């Protein structure tokens, strides 16, 4: 399915302002989070910002300065440039330390292996020549390229971006190379952990439809935070079930793939492409469409579209609606409905809690006759089921 539909209009995810209307997306990014959040909100999504990590300022990073000075001690044979922003940051930091001229001369005499087009562009923008770029844009192919050569005695600088390339560096050293790790943009946990903790709780409860990741360190940070709360298994189960783990590329998805968690990825590792793939996937895979009481319904994450009109629903009425839609046209008992209500909704008696949720659901839906009461038995949707598409 190439678009989503509200009412009779067919929408293109790339342009539709409401392709993600009714869906909630958690965003863990720190860098460019406002830009990415705007891309999602422009398509109608409710965005929950929960920065997972923060950057160590380059000018204050003693480890980066020490690694730069070490690389300047003797000629470097190869330089692995993993990211464009990381390489530009390294050059900018060197300029701040008064080392940019020495570093530029050193790099000009080395083979510069760039992981992808952005890294290659940054190298060329610095007036340097790139030697080789893998077709897959992967560090694994760069490593294989190097290991196919005799590395004994070679000095290789590896520019990291956030996550340590532990195996990469170990394999090069095992082949006899002297490896200098350039730790550009090291990540630390975000100063205020409460937004990420809330997002973990909302993900486990199914209150969000997707969580978007733009870096592998952010994935690790969320998993580590969940582990500290005793919720890592529940978080992984949510990602393996109703909640989409959307990753900007395979490197970002790596920590989840290692745990067998399926991920949604765009064809190109770009923020715009990630927003577009979410706008295609959620309306296509996470919407239940049916007809009830003569009205067309689209049940989304936190809203229902009734005859083309988007109607947001509170958690308890939405939980009831989704449970009724699991058995369209069939009676669902009050006891059954009570089991799906959020904890805060069942402080009163079971019967009263369900009745209140159904009343609020009917009020939010608008037209009468969508939810029917079956005396002494429960409730049902007066519908012809079309299924999820």
From TrEMBL:
Signal peptide annotation: none
The UniProt keywords, alphabetically, are: DNA-binding, Lyase
DNA-binding region(s), residue ranges: 287-383
Superkingdom assignment: Bacteria
The protein's GO terms of the molecular function aspect are: uroporphyrinogen-III synthase activity
Note the InterPro entries from the entry.
4pyrrol_synth_uPrphyn_synth, OmpR/PhoB-type_DNA-bd, UROS/Hem4
Might you give the EC number(s) for this enzyme? 4.2.1.75
User: What is the protein name stated in its UniProt record?
Assistant: Uroporphyrinogen-III synthase
Organism the protein comes from: Nonomuraea ferruginea
């Amino acid at each position: 399915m190439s678009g989503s539909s509200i009412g009779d209009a067919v929408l293109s995810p790339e342009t539709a302002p409401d392709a993600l209307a009714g869906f909630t997306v958690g965003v863990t990014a720190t860098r460019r989070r406002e830009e990415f959040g705007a891309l999602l909100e422009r398509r109608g999504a409710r965005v929950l910002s929960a920065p997972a990590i923060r950057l160590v300022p380059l000018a204050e990073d003693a480890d980066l300065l020490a690694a730069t000075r070490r690389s300047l001690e003797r000629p470097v044979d190869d330089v692995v440039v993993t990211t464009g922003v990381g390489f530009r940051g390294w050059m900018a930091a060197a300029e701040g330390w008064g080392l940019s001229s020495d570093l530029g001369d050193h790099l000009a005499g080395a083979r510069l292996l760039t992981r992808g087009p952005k890294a290659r562009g940054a190298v060329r923008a610095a007036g340097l020549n790139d030697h080789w770029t893998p077709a897959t844009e992967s560090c694994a192919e760069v490593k294989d390229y190097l290991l196919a050569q005799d590395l004994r005695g070679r000095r290789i600088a590896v520019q990291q971006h956030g996550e340590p390339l532990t195996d990469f560096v170990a394999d090069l050293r095992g082949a006899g190379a002297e490896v200098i790790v350039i730790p550009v943009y090291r990540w630390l946990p975000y100063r205020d952990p409460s937004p990420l903790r809330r997002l973990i709780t909302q993900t486990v409860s199914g209150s969000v439809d997707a969580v978007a990741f733009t870096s592998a360190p952010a994935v690790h940070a969320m998993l580590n935070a969940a582990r500290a709360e005793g919720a890592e298994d529940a978080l992984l189960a949510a990602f393996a079930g109703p909640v989409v783990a959307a990753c900007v590329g395979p490197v970002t998805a790596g920590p989840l793939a290692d745990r067998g968690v399926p991920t949604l990825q765009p064809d190109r590792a770009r923020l715009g492409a990630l927003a577009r793939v979410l706008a295609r996937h959620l309306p296509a895979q996470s919407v239940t469409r049916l007809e009830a009481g003569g009205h067309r319904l689209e049940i989304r994450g936190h809203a229902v579209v009734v005859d083309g009109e988007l109607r947001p629903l509170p958690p308890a009425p939405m939980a009831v609606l989704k449970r009724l839609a699991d058995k369209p046209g069939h009676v669902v008992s009050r006891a059954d409905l009570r089991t799906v209500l959020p904890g805060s909704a069942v402080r009163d008696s079971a019967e009263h809690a369900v009745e209140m949720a159904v009343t609020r659901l009917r009020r939010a839906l608008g037209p009468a006759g969508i939810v029917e009461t079956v005396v002494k038995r429960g409730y049902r949707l007066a519908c012809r089921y079309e299924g999820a598409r």
